[in-house]
Design a protein that fits this description.
Blueprint lengths: L5 H11 L3 H10 L4 H19 L6 E8 L5 E9 L2 H4 L2 H17 L4 H6 L9 H12 L4 E9 L4 E7 L3 E8 L3 H14 L11 H17 L4 H19 L16 H8 L2 E9 L11 H13 L1
Antiparallel strand pairs: 1-2, 2-3, 4-5, 5-6
Length: about 300
């Protein structure tokens, strides 16, 4: 039986990213053959990741990264199954490294990102993800990312805790303005910069609902379109960045459009991610589960 030293275990851990005890066990089973142990661990981590992939991962974190020169940045959402794992140091570091990898390597999509070497890591993004699944026992997935690169503008980012992340591309103004705009976006959640970016279906839905409500209220037909126009304009002010009232406006009235004009600035693009947004979570009815267990026991 080959002697399994601490340095061997440490080396295997660094190569696979898996736990010390798992590494020691693999080395024992392979009689100290490093290559065999590493291969077997990666096979096991891949199988475990495959099984976990079917489970809903609606928790997680949003991470951002901006280069030192402020010209390239990224925001990424990485998911897991529970908020407990979302706070795990290894998971958080992985998410941060994913955002940095996106910013520095400009992947076309998640598949391309998965094949890339993870920044600050020793394996690919996908291999690191699989190792994390094996170590944490939960499904871990990279859901989405956005990358901005600018030559004439500036980038800013803001994280509200770890659940909401914003990446902003703007021109003019200073860093304080960039941060204020990013914080505003996180708080007010605009759908687009202006009306041109709002889904026409959403606008038409607001118009149709306004007309039906006015008709039910007994308004004359001649007024319905005018009422609908007013409703749509109000809707656009609420969902567009330029139309929204700045959250830090001293007079409670200044819009983002007015703020930008006063600073000689403009917004080129922004992206906001909210963890789990749009993911259908499984609702656990524990009372019903217990009742069903009791009923089955009586049969």
């Amino acid at each position: 039986m080959a002697e399994i030293t601490a340095s061997m275990v440490k080396e295997l851990r660094e190569a696979t990213g898996l736990g010390m005890m798992e590494c020691k066990k693999a080395l024992v089973e392979s009689n100290g053959d490093f290559k065999v142990a590493e291969e077997q661990m990666r096979i096991k981590s891949g199988a475990k990741a495959s099984k976990a992939s079917s489970r809903v991962a609606a928790e997680g974190v949003v991470s951002t990264f901006i280069s030192v020169d402020g010209k390239t940045g990224a925001v990424a959402e990485v998911n897991c199954e529970t908020d407990f794992v979302a706070k795990n140091d290894d998971f958080v570091v992985f998410a941060k490294n994913v955002a940095e990898t996106v910013a520095k390597n400009n992947p076309a999509d998640i598949a391309a990102l998965s094949d890339m070497a993870l920044v600050n890591g020793s394996t690919s993004v996908e291999e690191t993800r699989k190792a994390l699944v094996m170590k944490l026992g939960e499904n871990v997935s990279i859901r989405r990312f956005e990358r901005y690169s600018t030559t004439t503008g500036k980038l800013s980012s803001y994280l509200h805790g770890s659940k909401i992340g914003v990446l902003l591309d703007y021109t003019g103004g200073d860093e304080t303005l960039g941060r204020d705009l990013s914080m505003h976006i996180a708080a007010s959640k605009p759908k687009s910069i202006d009306a041109s970016g709002v889904n026409p279906v959403d606008i038409e839905t607001e118009r149709r609902i306004a007309i039906e409500k006015a008709r039910e209220a007994g308004k004359p037909d001649a007024m319905l379109e005018k009422i609908a126009d007013g409703t749509v304009q109000k809707f656009l002010k609420e969902v567009t960045l330029l139309g929204q009232v700045f959250v830090k406006a001293e007079d409670g009235k200044q819009t983002i459009e007015q703020l930008l004009k006063s600073k000689g600035a403009s917004v080129t693009a922004f992206q906001m991610f909210v963890v789990g947004e749009g993911i259908e979570k499984k609702v656990e009815d524990y009372a019903a589960e217990v009742a069903a267990t009791i009923a089955a026991a009586k049969v």
